Amino acid sequence: MSGYKAAATEGSGEARTDSMSRRSTFLTIITVAAVAAGAFFGLRHQPVRRSAREPLNSREATVEGSADAVLPVNLMAGTDDATCATSPDELKRWRASGDILITDVRPRSEFERIRIPGSVNFPVRELKTKLYLRERRLLLVDRGYRLHELTAACRSMRERGFHGVRVLSGGLEAWRRHLGPLAGDGLAEAALDRVGPEVLESGLHHGDWVVVDVTDARSATELFQPVTHVPFDGGGLHFVSRINEAITTDGEARVRFVVLVDRDGKRYEVIKQAIGGGWPEFLYFLDGGIEAYRAERANHEAMLAAAVRPACRECGR
């Protein structure tokens, strides 16, 4: 009997250990899935606030055809370190004083589709290892809306001895508008002012983006924070003036990037044509509109549910 009890006790211990192992696996899977979903949908609920003393360094871009309808354009858009950011006008003066190596840090596939003529392509992590470039003047470029990341890269590189590195504020869109043509695919160039759901969520997380809902039905109110409602009525200059009122306080911009959202994204080109040549580079459009965002959200929720169910069955629940 004592042997039987010992065996039973041992078997019970193994069962408890196995059960605990399965539950641990279950909890791990839930945690990973939740983090993955939160990376897309949870960021906006924990915005990073800027100091109230932090300057916006804004200038005004006059909308073509009107001296009154203006939008504040922040030359330091998206960066917290003024020594890293370089506006197009500053870049013109910088280039006149010597050679600059324009370094595009986007993925290779994006670089091959559209790029600045004469630029080179290196991911930041690879660029940091090229010590022979420490004495060069480097201009980091991307699509323009990830300047929080580029600012961090700029600081890190300067700590490693790359003292001549700067970041182009506004990215490729700023280059196209103020410095010269781009090389590559025309369709890719036309899409430079579009952002996907992940990019928008990241920007809202940093606290310096705002969504402008241009629909008549306030369709974006339940999805985004912060959001302001400026329905597009077909009048370009009046529309711009209303956006300006929505994002400024006492003449100063409260945000650094503005993303316009429509129901399905089909009116973006009409809006751009109505605005004319004064469309500033810090304005973007949510690719595919609110419908595409909701579809992406549903996909992530389905992935979370799929990750949880198999583990739950394994635990016998």
The Cα radius of gyration reads 25 Å
Strand order within the widest sheet?
3-8-7-4-6
What does the main sheet amount to? 5 strands, parallel
SSE pattern, N- to C-terminal: HEEEHEHEEHEHEHEHEHEEHEEEHEH
Q: Beta-strand level of the residues, as a percent range?
A: 15-25%
The number of helical segments is 11
Give the averaged pLDDT, no decimals. 76
Overall outline:
globular
Tell me the number of structural domains: 2
Helix content: 40-55%
Structural class: alpha/beta
Tell me the CATH superfamily of the largest domain: Rhodanese-like domain
CATH architecture of the largest domain: 3-Layer(aba) Sandwich
Instruction: Give the N-to-C terminal Cα separation.
Output: 34 Å
Low-confidence stretches: 1-11, 26-37, 39-80
Describe the structure.
The protein is an alpha/beta fold and 317 residues long. It has 2 domains: 52 residues; 229 residues, Oxidized Rhodanese, domain 1, CATH 3.40.250. It contains 11 helices and 16 strands. A 5-stranded parallel sheet has the order 3-8-7-4-6. Strands 10-16-15-11-12 form a 5-stranded parallel sheet, with helices on both faces. The longest helix has 40 residues.
Quick description:
Helix content is 44%, strand content 17%. It is α/β, with parallel strands linked by helices. The strands form 5 sheets. It has a 5-stranded parallel beta sheet.
Based on the model shown, name its key terms:
Oxidized Rhodanese, domain 1, five-stranded parallel β-sheet, alpha/beta, 2 domains, single chain, disordered N terminus, 317 residues, 16 strands, 44% helix, 11 helices
